[in-house]
Each structure stands twice: as structure tokens, then as C-alpha cells.
Design brief:
2 copies of one chain form a homodimer. With 141 residues, chain A is an all-alpha fold. Helices cover 58% and strands 0% of the residues of chain A. At the A-B interface, helix 3, helix 5 and helix 6 of A face helix 3, helix 5 and helix 6 of B. Chain A binds a DNA duplex (30 and 30 nucleotides) through helix 2.
Chain lengths: 141, 141
DNA sequence: TGTAGGGTCTGTAGCGGCTACAGGCTCAAG
DNA sequence: CTTGAGCCTGTAGCCGCTACAGACCCTACA
């Protein structure tokens, strides 16, 4: 199978290189139904079309944006088999955005505790490490 | 075993309630060596001392602060069997703090992409959902 | 035509950090 | 003496991959 026998038609390795996705991950996504099973050659090799690549790229970008797998399924219309409406997508995005903001808040609280305690300790000889003390007595949230 | 036969001496369930930790998690931490095996009654019931409770609280707080398990091991002196020096603790905290800040940065980039795209879409009838378009074409990082 | 090397195929096991059973034992209260 | 809660062990499952092993196939070069 050369690179040029048709404009499309990628092997699994080619798809992996084209998308930057780990080759095993592609198989994984097929197994869990995130990517449709591609057609095969006589010998059983997968042949991916550009539509597969587009879908995989979508999944990878959504993942970069922190969407959970079940959200990505929803965005792809895999939950009930119907294409999601614009309102669906909007709602899902807003919910995810709220989660992201909450997580930022959590991490900022963590950051301030860590920064405060690390500043107290120069790393030199100090009895009763203030960092360990802070961990044993700090409450986050 | 009553609650009052000695000042200390907790069963597993009591320890779980006292620390807010899931009872199974305690067993898990013992299995992976984060908590020492406690002494047992004749019938095999675990009896935890206050030192176990203190250690478990330490682990739980460190976890709340987002430390990875291997860092917590380090903070507890479980990596090489020696108590960590103040400098060790400081370095580990600074490294973790840097990780936390990096994660905050990642999430903020994600937030801005999500907020920007969600704002473009009212959820009403719009051709070519801008959210899906943004996902298919946005790069984070 | 043979062979070496890459790529691909399948199935399965492992990671971290738990969580949730099943099936049995023990303990305290009534 | 029974009942029900709690404890014991071992094992399996969760997510989202990742990494094999062992077999097959395909291409290039001699």
C-alpha cells in the first residue's frame, strides 16, 4: 500500500502520524466505539478515510479542552444515535466550562497554601518543618 | 471492643469515621505500604493507634493539596527509609507548586477557549455550530 | 526467489488510585 | 441463642489509555 495509490486511504500508522495520536489509542477508540470500524484490506489491514482522521482529530481536540469521554460521545452524537442539537452542545460546553472554573478555583486555593508554606521554609536547618506542619493542619476548600 | 477500653485503639470503621476516609481506602493504603500494618486482636481485627490516625490524616491532607502518591511517600520518608530533610520537603513542595501553577495555566487557556466559543452560540438555531467548529480547529497550549 | 526488516494483526495485562463486591467470621445487644 | 452490624480476606472493576507477546503480511533489495 503506497502513499499514493489514492488520495485517501491511510493505514493505522499513517493515521497515527497524521494526527499525532498514539497508534494504540486509535485501536482503543475503535474498541470503545468512539471511532467506527474502518474497512479492511483482504489481509485484514485497516484502511482509514479522511472522515476517520477528521473524527479522530475532533476527539483529540476535545480531549485537549478537557472534555470527559462521555461528553465527547455526546458531542459526537454517540449517546442516543442522533446528532446533538446546537442547544445540547451549548449546554454541555457551559457545564464543562463551569467544571473547569471550579477546578481552577481549587487549584488556586492549593497554590496559595503551598506558596505560603514553602515561603516559610528556606530549606535550611529549621526545627519543625513548617511545610509538614501546614500539611498536617491545613484545610483546602 | 468498646470505645472506652483505652484512650486509643480504633477499629477500622472507627478510624474511617474519625478521618473521613473511605474504609476500603485504609486497607488499600496498608496494602501499598502507605500505612503500617497495625497490630491485631486475637480474632484478627486491626487495632489502630493515634499515630495511625495522624499518619492517615497527613496522607489525606497531602492528597487534598494535590500531591501525587509518590510525593506523599517521599514526604513520609517511605522512599529510602529515612526521614526527609527540610530541604527535601521544600524541594518537593516547590516542584509541586510549579506543577499546580502549570495546571492552572492550562485550565485558563481552556477556559478562554470554551468561554469564547460558548459566547458565540446562544443555543438557538444557528447554522454550523460555532462550538463544534471551535473544537475542530482550536489548539490549546 | 529468498530473506530481512518493517508494519500490522489479535489478545491480554498493566498502570494509578481507588471502589465494590462476595462469602465467611466475630462481636455485642437483646 | 439469635440477630444484625461490623470486620476479615481475596478478587474484580472503574477510566483512559499504554505496552507488550506472538503471529501474520508486505516491500525492498540481493
Amino acid at each position: 500500500m503506497s502513499d499514493h495509490d489514492s488520495e485517501s486511504g491511510l493505514t493505522r500508522g499513517e493515521l497515527a502520524r497524521a494526527t499525532g495520536c498514539n497508534i494504540e489509542t486509535i485501536r482503543h477508540y475503535e474498541k470503545i466505539g468512539m471511532l467506527p470500524d474502518p474497512p479492511r484490506t483482504g489481509a485484514g489491514y485497516r484502511i482509514y478515510a479522511q472522515s476517520h482522521a477528521a473524527r479522530l482529530r475532533f476527539i483529540l481536540r476535545a480531549r485537549e479542552l478537557g472534555f470527559a469521554m462521555k461528553d465527547i460521545r455526546g458531542l459526537l452524537g454517540l449517546e442516543d444515535g442522533t446528532a446533538p442539537t446546537c442547544a445540547d452542545v451549548h449546554a454541555r460546553t457551559e457545564r464543562h466550562l463551569a467544571d473547569v472554573r471550579a477546578k481552577i478555583g481549587d487549584l488556586k486555593r492549593i497554590e496559595s497554601v503551598l506558596a505560603g508554606t514553602a515561603a516559610k521554609c528556606s530549606g535550611d536547618e529549621v526545627p519543625d518543618c513548617p511545610v509538614l506542619d501546614a500539611i498536617t493542619s491545613s484545610f483546602v476548600r
